[in-house]
Specification:
Elements (H helix, E strand, L loop, with lengths): L3 H18 L20 H9 L14 E3 L9 E4 L4 H9 L4 E4 L18 H12 L3 E3 L3 H4 L5 H9 L12 E8 H12 L5 E3 L5 E8 L5 H11 L3 E4 L7 H10 L5 E4 L2 H19 L5 E3 L10
Parallel strand pairs: 2-3, 2-10, 3-4, 7-8, 8-9
Antiparallel strand pairs: 1-4, 5-7, 6-9
GO molecular function: hydrolase activity; metal ion binding
Family: Belongs to the GTP cyclohydrolase I type 2/NIF3 family.
Protein name: Putative NIF3 family GTP cyclohydrolase 1 type 2
């Protein structure tokens, strides 16, 4: 049973988050001093983050604890895209007992584990965290649904495009370049060795439609139809959907290109965003962002 103090604290966080979303409070921190707090539980960190998301908490969400407990007193935090075995070992070395990944840990969108209970791969990951007292809280839906999508904000920063970004917009008007140079820029900034594209490498690009991750072909195509960008920069897409649309557009004479970064690299900036948020809102708490990299290699 939750204590009255914890219940009151959570109620405050949710109310202050609503005021923040309405623009009536510069920050919930200004109404309650967190600076003097010596320690944080997992649940308090979760509630504080969720309090700053409009219309949260959500009735249906994948952002739940997969390993561990809300009551765990946090000694340090690691943010990342994927909770690999390497990430878990690094968290143990850093004495960080909370891992916050953006994507699933147990190989499916909902982190279903009923069919994996006797599998040695699942058991190795789960048991390593449990043995070392690590709690894992996935933060996917909430960071995407902040006042301004935290993943997009992080990726824009990683790409060095802050000056061209309008908060809340998927469109960026960058200085004119060609597709070849734009691909090289993204490869360099995000540390991606290679990426796939559709279009003419000499095409002039300025108006960018930025859709990190895997938002689906229908949304990618309808956003192209609405905004008519020079280039779509996305995480990934089914080959029979947006790539074929962009190829057909070129075949009828339209100037349209597409760059597919890869899911992991296209959203890793969101985990950096979460790290920065934690540093700002939980002063003194050790927080580390460790990129997980891509499991798929280029030969």
């Amino acid at each position: 049973m939750e204590s009255k103090n914890n219940s009151s604290r959570r109620e405050f966080m949710l109310k202050s988050g609503a005021l923040l979303g309405a623009g009536l409070l510069s920050s919930p921190l200004s109404a309650f001093s967190f600076d003097s707090k010596k320690s944080w539980t997992v649940g308090e960190i979760m509630d504080t983050f969720i309090s700053q998301v409009p219309n949260a908490p959500f009735e249906r969400t994948v952002d739940t604890i997969k390993v561990g407990s809300r009551e765990t007193v946090v000694t340090g935090v690691v943010t990342t895209m994927f909770t690999t075995m390497e990430i878990i070992h690094k968290a143990i070395e850093l004495k960080a007992n909370l891992i916050i990944p953006h994507e699933p840990t147990f190989f499916s969108g909902q982190d279903d584990t009923d069919y994996l209970q006797e599998d040695p791969v699942f058991r190795a990951k789960y048991d390593l965290m449990e043995k070392n007292g690590i709690t894992l809280w996935r933060n996917h839906d909430y960071v995407h649904r902040m006042q301004d999508d935290g993943v997009r904000v992080g990726v824009v920063g990683d790409l060095g495009w802050n000056e061209y970004y309008t908060p809340g917009s998927r469109i960026l008007n960058i200085p004119k370049t060609n597709l070849r140079s734009l691909i090289n820029h993204i490869k360099t900034k995000l540390g991606v060795p290679a990426m796939r594209y559709v279009g003419d490498l000499n095409q002039t690009c300025s108006k960018v439609l930025l859709l990190p991750g895997a938002v689906g072909g229908r949304l990618q195509i309808t956003q192209i139809m609405e905004h008519r960008p020079d280039v779509l920069v996305c995480g990934e897409s089914n080959e029979w959907e947006t790539p074929e649309y962009v190829r057909a557009a070129n075949e009828i004479g339209m100037k349209l290109s597409m760059i597919e970064i890869g899911h992991s690299a296209s959203e890793e900036g969101g985990s950096e965003f979460v790290k920065n948020w934690l540093t700002q809102n939980m002063p003194g708490l050790p927080v580390y962002h460790i990129p997980s990299g891509n499991s798929l290699q280029v030969f």
